[in-house]
Amino acid sequence: MNISLDARERALLRALIAQHIRDGEPVGSRTLAKRSGLDVSAATIRNIMADLEEVGLVAAPHVSAGRVPTAQGYRVFVDSLLQMRPLPDAELLRLRSRIPAGAGTGELLSSASELLSAMSQFVGVVTVPQRDQFAFRHIDFVGLDGGRVLVILVFTDNEVQNRVVTPRRAFSASELEQTANYLNAQFAGRPVAEIRAALQRELRETGSEMQRLLDAALELSGEALAGRSGGSDDMLLAGQTRLMGVQDLADMERLRDLFEAFSRKREILQLLERTISAPGVRVFIGEETGLAPLDACTVITAPYVSQGRVLGVLGVIGPTRMAYDRVIPMVQATADVLGAALNPVPTAP
Residue 270 to residues 2, 53, 219, 243, 326: CA-CA distances in angstroms? Predict the structure, then answer.
Protein backbone atom coordinates (compact mmCIF):
# COMPACT_ATOMS: atom_id res chain seq x y z
CA MET A 1 0.00 0.00 0.00
CA ASN A 2 1.22 3.47 -0.82
CA ILE A 3 0.28 5.23 2.45
CA SER A 4 2.67 7.76 3.92
CA LEU A 5 2.78 7.84 7.74
CA ASP A 6 4.69 10.22 9.95
CA ALA A 7 6.79 9.03 12.90
CA ARG A 8 3.98 9.33 15.47
CA GLU A 9 1.50 7.47 13.27
CA ARG A 10 4.02 4.71 12.67
CA ALA A 11 4.80 4.38 16.37
CA LEU A 12 1.13 4.25 17.34
CA LEU A 13 0.19 1.76 14.61
CA ARG A 14 3.08 -0.48 15.61
CA ALA A 15 2.10 -0.29 19.28
CA LEU A 16 -1.58 -0.96 18.53
CA ILE A 17 -0.86 -4.02 16.40
CA ALA A 18 1.67 -5.44 18.88
CA GLN A 19 -0.85 -5.06 21.72
CA HIS A 20 -3.72 -6.53 19.69
CA ILE A 21 -1.60 -9.54 18.68
CA ARG A 22 -0.83 -10.15 22.36
CA ASP A 23 -4.35 -10.01 23.80
CA GLY A 24 -6.82 -10.03 20.87
CA GLU A 25 -8.81 -7.09 22.25
CA PRO A 26 -9.51 -3.61 20.80
CA VAL A 27 -6.83 -1.17 21.96
CA GLY A 28 -7.82 2.10 23.61
CA SER A 29 -6.00 5.44 23.66
CA ARG A 30 -4.89 5.07 27.28
CA THR A 31 -3.21 1.76 26.57
CA LEU A 32 -1.53 3.24 23.50
CA ALA A 33 -0.27 6.19 25.54
CA LYS A 34 1.51 3.69 27.84
CA ARG A 35 2.72 1.29 25.15
CA SER A 36 3.88 3.67 22.41
CA GLY A 37 6.48 5.56 24.43
CA LEU A 38 5.26 8.85 22.93
CA ASP A 39 4.87 11.97 25.05
CA VAL A 40 1.45 12.90 23.68
CA SER A 41 -1.99 13.33 25.22
CA ALA A 42 -4.83 10.82 24.95
CA ALA A 43 -6.72 13.37 22.86
CA THR A 44 -3.85 13.54 20.33
CA ILE A 45 -3.78 9.75 20.17
CA ARG A 46 -7.53 9.66 19.50
CA ASN A 47 -7.08 12.14 16.66
CA ILE A 48 -4.26 10.08 15.13
CA MET A 49 -6.37 6.92 15.47
CA ALA A 50 -9.20 8.67 13.63
CA ASP A 51 -6.77 9.52 10.82
CA LEU A 52 -5.54 5.91 10.64
CA GLU A 53 -9.13 4.71 10.55
CA GLU A 54 -9.94 7.09 7.72
CA VAL A 55 -7.19 5.60 5.53
CA GLY A 56 -8.32 2.05 6.36
CA LEU A 57 -5.49 0.86 8.63
CA VAL A 58 -7.56 0.43 11.81
CA ALA A 59 -11.23 -0.08 12.60
CA ALA A 60 -13.49 0.42 15.62
CA PRO A 61 -15.57 -2.74 16.13
CA HIS A 62 -17.68 -1.09 18.85
CA VAL A 63 -18.35 2.51 19.87
CA SER A 64 -15.72 3.75 22.37
CA ALA A 65 -14.18 0.29 22.62
CA GLY A 66 -10.79 1.03 21.10
CA ARG A 67 -9.52 -0.04 17.69
CA VAL A 68 -8.20 -3.12 15.95
CA PRO A 69 -5.92 -3.39 12.91
CA THR A 70 -7.44 -4.14 9.51
CA ALA A 71 -5.85 -6.43 6.91
CA GLN A 72 -4.44 -3.28 5.29
CA GLY A 73 -3.02 -2.25 8.66
CA TYR A 74 -1.31 -5.62 9.01
CA ARG A 75 0.10 -5.20 5.49
CA VAL A 76 1.71 -1.85 6.39
CA PHE A 77 2.97 -3.40 9.63
CA VAL A 78 4.59 -6.37 7.86
CA ASP A 79 6.06 -4.27 5.05
CA SER A 80 7.52 -1.39 7.00
CA LEU A 81 7.06 -1.58 10.79
CA LEU A 82 7.90 -5.15 11.72
CA GLN A 83 10.97 -5.73 13.86
CA MET A 84 12.00 -9.32 13.15
CA ARG A 85 13.37 -11.59 15.84
CA PRO A 86 15.82 -14.38 14.98
CA LEU A 87 14.57 -17.89 15.52
CA PRO A 88 15.60 -19.05 19.02
CA ASP A 89 18.51 -21.49 19.06
CA ALA A 90 16.37 -24.15 20.73
CA GLU A 91 13.83 -24.07 17.90
CA LEU A 92 16.57 -24.14 15.26
CA LEU A 93 18.13 -27.20 16.93
CA ARG A 94 14.70 -28.82 17.05
CA LEU A 95 14.25 -28.27 13.32
CA ARG A 96 17.63 -29.76 12.48
CA SER A 97 17.10 -32.80 14.70
CA ARG A 98 13.61 -33.51 13.32
CA ILE A 99 14.53 -32.81 9.67
CA PRO A 100 17.84 -34.67 9.41
CA ALA A 101 19.90 -35.03 6.24
CA GLY A 102 19.79 -38.56 4.89
CA ALA A 103 16.17 -39.34 5.74
CA GLY A 104 13.70 -40.16 2.97
CA THR A 105 11.95 -37.29 1.23
CA GLY A 106 8.47 -38.34 2.35
CA GLU A 107 9.58 -38.46 5.98
CA LEU A 108 11.30 -35.07 5.72
CA LEU A 109 8.27 -33.35 4.16
CA SER A 110 5.91 -34.82 6.74
CA SER A 111 8.20 -33.74 9.58
CA ALA A 112 8.44 -30.22 8.15
CA SER A 113 4.65 -29.75 7.94
CA GLU A 114 4.13 -31.14 11.45
CA LEU A 115 6.91 -28.98 12.93
CA LEU A 116 5.55 -25.83 11.29
CA SER A 117 2.16 -26.58 12.83
CA ALA A 118 3.56 -27.41 16.28
CA MET A 119 5.85 -24.36 16.42
CA SER A 120 3.26 -21.88 15.12
CA GLN A 121 0.15 -23.53 16.64
CA PHE A 122 -1.51 -23.06 13.26
CA VAL A 123 -1.57 -25.11 10.02
CA GLY A 124 1.72 -26.29 8.51
CA VAL A 125 1.78 -26.91 4.76
CA VAL A 126 4.40 -28.30 2.36
CA THR A 127 4.08 -28.92 -1.37
CA VAL A 128 5.47 -32.24 -2.60
CA PRO A 129 8.21 -31.87 -5.23
CA GLN A 130 7.80 -33.47 -8.59
CA ARG A 131 9.74 -36.70 -8.69
CA ASP A 132 11.32 -35.80 -12.05
CA GLN A 133 13.30 -33.08 -10.27
CA PHE A 134 15.36 -35.74 -8.49
CA ALA A 135 18.22 -37.79 -9.86
CA PHE A 136 18.02 -41.54 -9.65
CA ARG A 137 20.78 -43.69 -8.21
CA HIS A 138 19.83 -47.16 -9.45
CA ILE A 139 17.09 -48.89 -11.46
CA ASP A 140 16.11 -52.56 -11.77
CA PHE A 141 13.48 -54.30 -13.90
CA VAL A 142 11.81 -57.55 -12.81
CA GLY A 143 9.55 -59.48 -15.19
CA LEU A 144 6.07 -60.36 -13.90
CA ASP A 145 3.20 -62.45 -15.25
CA GLY A 146 1.23 -61.12 -18.19
CA GLY A 147 4.13 -59.19 -19.70
CA ARG A 148 4.13 -56.68 -16.84
CA VAL A 149 7.39 -55.32 -15.43
CA LEU A 150 8.17 -54.29 -11.85
CA VAL A 151 10.42 -51.22 -11.85
CA ILE A 152 12.49 -50.64 -8.70
CA LEU A 153 13.82 -47.08 -8.53
CA VAL A 154 16.31 -45.83 -5.96
CA PHE A 155 16.71 -42.03 -5.96
CA THR A 156 19.61 -39.97 -4.67
CA ASP A 157 17.37 -38.55 -1.91
CA ASN A 158 17.03 -42.10 -0.50
CA GLU A 159 13.48 -42.63 -1.71
CA VAL A 160 12.71 -46.08 -3.12
CA GLN A 161 9.73 -46.49 -5.41
CA ASN A 162 8.26 -49.67 -6.87
CA ARG A 163 6.06 -49.31 -9.94
CA VAL A 164 4.42 -51.87 -12.19
CA VAL A 165 4.28 -50.97 -15.89
CA THR A 166 2.80 -52.81 -18.87
CA PRO A 167 4.99 -52.30 -21.96
CA ARG A 168 3.65 -52.77 -25.46
CA ARG A 169 5.64 -55.99 -25.92
CA ALA A 170 7.04 -58.66 -23.64
CA PHE A 171 10.69 -58.42 -22.58
CA SER A 172 12.92 -61.36 -21.73
CA ALA A 173 14.87 -61.47 -18.46
CA SER A 174 18.12 -60.81 -20.34
CA GLU A 175 16.63 -57.79 -22.12
CA LEU A 176 15.46 -56.35 -18.82
CA GLU A 177 18.89 -56.87 -17.24
CA GLN A 178 20.71 -55.37 -20.22
CA THR A 179 18.39 -52.35 -20.27
CA ALA A 180 18.81 -51.73 -16.54
CA ASN A 181 22.59 -52.01 -16.82
CA TYR A 182 22.60 -49.47 -19.66
CA LEU A 183 20.44 -46.94 -17.78
CA ASN A 184 22.51 -47.31 -14.60
CA ALA A 185 25.78 -46.87 -16.48
CA GLN A 186 24.68 -43.92 -18.60
CA PHE A 187 22.23 -41.97 -16.43
CA ALA A 188 22.75 -42.66 -12.72
CA GLY A 189 23.08 -39.35 -10.90
CA ARG A 190 21.22 -37.35 -13.54
CA PRO A 191 17.81 -35.72 -13.01
CA VAL A 192 14.98 -37.95 -14.14
CA ALA A 193 13.53 -35.18 -16.34
CA GLU A 194 16.62 -35.33 -18.58
CA ILE A 195 16.62 -39.06 -19.24
CA ARG A 196 13.73 -39.45 -21.67
CA ALA A 197 14.92 -36.54 -23.83
CA ALA A 198 18.48 -37.92 -23.84
CA LEU A 199 17.25 -41.37 -24.89
CA GLN A 200 15.19 -39.92 -27.72
CA ARG A 201 18.19 -37.91 -28.91
CA GLU A 202 20.49 -40.94 -28.83
CA LEU A 203 17.89 -43.04 -30.64
CA ARG A 204 17.89 -40.54 -33.51
CA GLU A 205 21.68 -40.37 -33.67
CA THR A 206 22.76 -43.93 -33.01
CA GLY A 207 23.30 -46.86 -35.37
CA SER A 208 21.04 -49.87 -35.74
CA GLU A 209 23.08 -52.09 -33.39
CA MET A 210 21.95 -49.92 -30.43
CA GLN A 211 18.44 -49.25 -31.61
CA ARG A 212 16.78 -52.25 -29.94
CA LEU A 213 18.40 -51.47 -26.58
CA LEU A 214 17.48 -47.79 -26.76
CA ASP A 215 13.91 -48.64 -27.77
CA ALA A 216 13.62 -50.87 -24.72
CA ALA A 217 15.17 -48.28 -22.42
CA LEU A 218 12.87 -45.55 -23.71
CA GLU A 219 9.70 -47.61 -23.33
CA LEU A 220 10.50 -49.09 -19.92
CA SER A 221 11.73 -45.84 -18.39
CA GLY A 222 9.09 -43.54 -19.89
CA GLU A 223 6.20 -44.49 -17.59
CA ALA A 224 8.38 -45.56 -14.66
CA LEU A 225 10.15 -42.23 -14.28
CA ALA A 226 7.05 -40.04 -14.44
CA GLY A 227 4.99 -38.56 -11.64
CA ARG A 228 5.37 -37.03 -8.23
CA SER A 229 6.83 -38.44 -5.06
CA GLY A 230 4.66 -39.07 -2.07
CA GLY A 231 1.86 -40.86 -3.93
CA SER A 232 -1.03 -38.93 -5.39
CA ASP A 233 -0.89 -36.10 -2.84
CA ASP A 234 0.76 -32.91 -4.08
CA MET A 235 0.56 -31.13 -0.72
CA LEU A 236 0.89 -32.10 2.94
CA LEU A 237 -1.18 -30.32 5.60
CA ALA A 238 -0.77 -30.66 9.36
CA GLY A 239 -2.65 -29.15 12.29
CA GLN A 240 -5.90 -28.08 10.63
CA THR A 241 -7.85 -28.74 13.84
CA ARG A 242 -5.69 -26.21 15.70
CA LEU A 243 -7.66 -23.45 13.96
CA MET A 244 -10.83 -24.57 15.75
CA GLY A 245 -9.42 -23.07 18.95
CA VAL A 246 -8.46 -19.73 17.40
CA GLN A 247 -10.65 -16.91 18.74
CA ASP A 248 -10.57 -14.92 15.49
CA LEU A 249 -11.87 -17.89 13.45
CA ALA A 250 -14.63 -18.99 15.84
CA ASP A 251 -17.44 -18.48 13.31
CA MET A 252 -18.68 -21.98 12.38
CA GLU A 253 -19.59 -21.09 8.79
CA ARG A 254 -16.14 -19.59 8.25
CA LEU A 255 -14.49 -22.69 9.74
CA ARG A 256 -16.58 -24.99 7.52
CA ASP A 257 -15.55 -23.11 4.37
CA LEU A 258 -11.94 -23.17 5.52
CA PHE A 259 -11.94 -26.93 6.16
CA GLU A 260 -13.60 -27.57 2.80
CA ALA A 261 -10.74 -25.63 1.16
CA PHE A 262 -8.23 -27.76 3.09
CA SER A 263 -10.03 -30.90 1.94
CA ARG A 264 -10.01 -29.88 -1.72
CA LYS A 265 -6.37 -28.69 -1.53
CA ARG A 266 -6.41 -27.56 -5.18
CA GLU A 267 -6.91 -23.83 -4.59
CA ILE A 268 -4.38 -23.69 -1.74
CA LEU A 269 -1.87 -25.62 -3.83
CA GLN A 270 -2.32 -23.11 -6.67
CA LEU A 271 -1.71 -20.23 -4.24
CA LEU A 272 1.47 -21.86 -2.96
CA GLU A 273 2.78 -22.65 -6.43
CA ARG A 274 2.34 -18.98 -7.42
CA THR A 275 5.18 -18.24 -5.00
CA ILE A 276 7.58 -20.96 -6.13
CA SER A 277 9.68 -18.65 -8.32
CA ALA A 278 9.86 -15.81 -5.78
CA PRO A 279 12.86 -15.98 -3.44
CA GLY A 280 12.42 -15.47 0.28
CA VAL A 281 9.31 -15.24 2.42
CA ARG A 282 5.96 -14.16 0.98
CA VAL A 283 3.08 -12.99 3.18
CA PHE A 284 -0.55 -13.03 1.96
CA ILE A 285 -2.98 -11.26 4.30
CA GLY A 286 -6.74 -11.73 4.05
CA GLU A 287 -8.11 -11.07 0.58
CA GLU A 288 -4.58 -11.03 -0.87
CA THR A 289 -4.77 -14.83 -1.00
CA GLY A 290 -7.50 -14.58 -3.64
CA LEU A 291 -9.42 -17.33 -1.81
CA ALA A 292 -12.68 -16.43 -0.07
CA PRO A 293 -12.30 -19.12 2.67
CA LEU A 294 -8.96 -17.51 3.64
CA ASP A 295 -10.28 -13.94 3.92
CA ALA A 296 -9.66 -13.95 7.68
CA CYS A 297 -6.32 -15.74 7.39
CA THR A 298 -2.70 -15.03 6.65
CA VAL A 299 -0.54 -17.37 4.57
CA ILE A 300 3.24 -17.13 5.03
CA THR A 301 5.33 -19.09 2.52
CA ALA A 302 8.93 -19.70 1.47
CA PRO A 303 10.42 -21.93 -1.25
CA TYR A 304 12.76 -24.73 -0.24
CA VAL A 305 15.81 -25.18 -2.43
CA SER A 306 18.29 -28.02 -2.89
CA GLN A 307 21.45 -27.74 -5.01
CA GLY A 308 20.20 -24.51 -6.54
CA ARG A 309 16.85 -26.02 -7.64
CA VAL A 310 13.53 -24.95 -6.12
CA LEU A 311 11.76 -28.17 -5.16
CA GLY A 312 8.62 -26.80 -3.56
CA VAL A 313 7.05 -24.34 -1.13
CA LEU A 314 6.23 -24.60 2.56
CA GLY A 315 4.47 -22.31 4.98
CA VAL A 316 1.96 -21.57 7.72
CA ILE A 317 -1.75 -20.78 7.44
CA GLY A 318 -3.27 -19.00 10.43
CA PRO A 319 -5.38 -16.00 11.48
CA THR A 320 -4.36 -12.50 10.45
CA ARG A 321 -3.67 -11.86 14.15
CA MET A 322 -0.45 -13.79 14.53
CA ALA A 323 3.05 -13.09 15.81
CA TYR A 324 4.58 -12.19 12.44
CA ASP A 325 7.96 -11.44 14.01
CA ARG A 326 8.16 -15.06 15.16
CA VAL A 327 6.38 -16.96 12.37
CA ILE A 328 8.20 -15.35 9.42
CA PRO A 329 11.70 -16.38 10.66
CA MET A 330 10.29 -19.81 11.53
CA VAL A 331 9.05 -20.38 7.97
CA GLN A 332 12.34 -19.21 6.45
CA ALA A 333 14.43 -21.36 8.81
CA THR A 334 12.30 -24.44 8.09
CA ALA A 335 12.72 -23.89 4.34
CA ASP A 336 16.50 -23.59 4.78
CA VAL A 337 16.77 -26.71 6.95
CA LEU A 338 14.51 -28.78 4.66
CA GLY A 339 16.44 -27.74 1.55
CA ALA A 340 19.76 -28.67 3.19
CA ALA A 341 18.36 -32.03 4.33
CA LEU A 342 17.26 -32.86 0.77
CA ASN A 343 20.79 -32.56 -0.63
CA PRO A 344 21.79 -35.96 -2.03
CA VAL A 345 23.83 -38.07 0.36
CA PRO A 346 27.13 -39.16 -1.30
CA THR A 347 27.44 -42.87 -1.88
CA ALA A 348 30.49 -44.78 -0.84
CA PRO A 349 32.95 -45.40 -3.70
Answer: 27, 33, 32, 21, 26
